[in-house]
Amino acid sequence: MSAPTDRADGPDVLLHRDGRAGRAVLNRPRALNALTHAMVGDLDAALTDWEHDDEVAAVVLTGAGERGLCAGGDIRSIYDDARGGGTATREFWRDEYRLNARIAGYPKPYVAVMDGIVMGGGVGVSAHAGVRVVTERSRIAMPETGIGFVPDVGGTWLLSRAPGELGTHLALTAAPAGAGDAIRCGLADHYVPAGRLPGFTAALARSTPEEALAAFAEPAPAAGLDAHREWIDACYAADTAEEIVDRLRADGRPEARAAADAITAKSPTAVKVALAALRRARRLDSLEQALVQEYRVSCTALASHDLVEGIRAQVVDKDRSPKWSPPTLPEVAEADVLRHFEPLGEAGDLDFEPTGTGGHR
């Protein structure tokens, strides 16, 4: 999904200079380029080097293989670590979220080629970029509620700022967004057909991103979600997850009923915490503040039954039959939701100061 020179062997992150561009290629194609802690460190170190290299005018992020940029964090590793206390995962998230904020404020153009599947942590290293490119193959999603988790990596910041309640719909159902919907929801900016990507990335070696986009970008496909804004905005504006599901079921349209079915199949605790996180993120002033909130939520979820059970059902045993606890939305107590947002105490909150930069600009 990158330029033809990208390889599927060698280090997990391929780094090289390509003319005026610093090229970073996520290189675990058999794992759909899932992020590890070491990969986060490699990307951060490369950004430091390129920030101070006058010969590098822009950074370009792509993914090796034919399926997508990045499927997210390595959740099998998270599963194993969560069962043993979760210390390594908390450190991974601490560095990953710092990287997400760094990408948003990077002083040079950072071009993310969001071709194919882009989920979870893949959104974190791409959707905060200054230049975000999608193709007809793009499928961008925050699917966390399906594994007993909550959108992170700045996902609540991005989704809470989508038009109307579109972000709430994507977060609670875990539905993927194609190119047109991703651009409408503020997850991407530009559309370049997949067949033109080799020419586009090659042009970045000798041209500015603006010049490369002028030569290779095309009008984006229509946003399919626009046709559903009426029921999405009306149903997801409800105060509680239970009322959202009730409104969706009462709407009568098959798409609304399908959304209700999708939500009730997810972890009830994760659904309620995700809704609260999105509503709170709307009132925050910066991406950094949202990441601090997400870190609290993530570390609390790490110690929960549902995260381990969700990964077991979806990734480890693949029986697709998670046993959530509690099993229904009404059984999730408000106190259990609120504790996800409490300071972490001795475990330590994410320790950077909000800058007020506001994330993606």
TrEMBL record:
GO terms for biological process: L-valine catabolic process. Coiled coil: none annotated. This is 3-hydroxyisobutyryl-CoA hydrolase. Its EC number is 3.1.2.4. It is an enzyme of class 3 (hydrolase). InterPro entries: ClpP/crotonase-like_dom_sf, ECH_dom, HIBYL-CoA-H. The keyword Cell cycle does not apply. PANTHER family: 3-HYDROXYISOBUTYRYL-COA HYDROLASE, MITOCHONDRIAL, 3-HYDROXYISOBUTYRYL-COA HYDROLASE-RELATED. Pfam families: ECH_2 (PF16113). Keywords: Hydrolase, Lyase. It comes from the Bacteria. One of its GO terms (molecular function) is 3-hydroxyisobutyryl-CoA hydrolase activity. GO terms for cellular component: cytosol. The keyword Lyase applies.
